[in-house]
């Protein structure tokens, strides 16, 4: 049975030197210690909006998981946004922390969901800033995300133009930033944190012509090889643009395939990871290891 929910639109959660940043909140109308996820749209870092996640937000809230769909700064031909765009995700988390008691949510039970460019931002932020005294990112869901910028540079001239705009330099001019900005190369840094144990769920379309499926396949392999719990869900007959809503693009609704099967798996993953009894700044995986020795 769907829970009664509260929706709040266009809340200002932060600002850049150019604009105010807004978000939509979807949450169960009652409860406490409710897990919450931040929804990060795609659009090649240059377009898109929080509206793409309105059905996901409602679906999650009705299922007992609060959601915050955010707008973040977007690049232009003269405005590179990495790494400053990661500050927008931090601002969203700070906003959640400030309103946690009012909303009944628990920032120690935090998740990130992103598609395409949003998948990059969700995973990169989780690997670099997974936890501090006030929050803990326990779960990340990435849909046909961008995880290896050097490899994406090789795929087309159009992608080279976009990546240069995103990072402010070509691969030839600044190879180090292409490594530093790639989630697949941030895994080692995450593992140096003593309480890092974020878990991942990656989904993609096998026929994707926009973002090569190898981006997700190789990222998931490296996560698993590093001992990070990772679930994958490949859609054999789909490409790009099916996870959420896009103007004038068919599909993307919760009632459309493959969301009819993917959404169930995503919700199962989130509840399994975010609703664990233990909350606080420690490693759940480490506690499980210690229990096995008792």
UniProtKB/TrEMBL annotation:
Residues 24-223 form the BD-FAE-like domain. The keyword DNA repair does not apply. Keywords: Hydrolase. One of its GO terms (molecular function) is hydrolase activity. InterPro entries: AB_hydrolase_fold, BD-FAE-like_dom, GDXG_lipolytic_enzyme. It holds the Pfam family BD-FAE. It comes from the Bacteria. SUPFAM superfamilies: alpha/beta-Hydrolases. The keyword S-adenosyl-L-methionine does not apply. This is Acetyl esterase/lipase.
């Amino acid at each position: 049975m769907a829970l009664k929910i509260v929706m709040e639109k266009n809340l200002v959660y932060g600002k850049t030197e150019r604009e105010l940043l807004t978000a939509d909140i979807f949450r169960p109308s009652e409860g406490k210690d409710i897990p919450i996820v931040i929804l990060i749209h795609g659009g090649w870092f240059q377009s898109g909006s929080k509206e793409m996640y309105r059905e996901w937000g409602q679906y999650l809230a009705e299922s007992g998981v609060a959601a915050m769909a955010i707008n973040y700064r977007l690049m232009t031909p003269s405005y590179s946004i990495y790494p400053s765009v990661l500050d927008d995700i931090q601002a969203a988390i700070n906003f959640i922390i400030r309103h946690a008691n009012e909303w009944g949510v628990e920032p120690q039970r935090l998740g990130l969901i992103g598609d395409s460019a949003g998948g990059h931002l969700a995973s990169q932020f989780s690997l670099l800033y997974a936890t501090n005294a006030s929050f803990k990112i326990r779960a990340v869901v990435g849909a046909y995300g961008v995880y290896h910028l050097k490899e994406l540079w090789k795929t087309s001239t159009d992608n080279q133009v976009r990546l240069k705009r995103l990072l402010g330099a070509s691969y030839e001019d600044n190879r180090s930033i292409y490594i530093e900005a790639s989630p697949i190369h941030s895994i080692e840094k995450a593992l140096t944190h003593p309480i890092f144990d974020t878990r991942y769920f990656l989904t993609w379309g096998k026929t994707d012509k926009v973002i090569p499926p190898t981006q997700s396949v190789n990222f998931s392999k490296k996560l698993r090889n590093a001992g990070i719990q990772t679930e994958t869900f490949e859609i054999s007959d789909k490409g790009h643009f099916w996870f959420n809503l896009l103007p004038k693009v068919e599909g993307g609704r919760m009632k459309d395939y493959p969301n009819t099967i993917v959404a169930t798996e995503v919700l199962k993953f989130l509840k399994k990871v975010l609703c664990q009894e233990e909350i606080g700044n420690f490693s759940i995986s480490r506690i499980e290891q210690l229990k096995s020795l008792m």
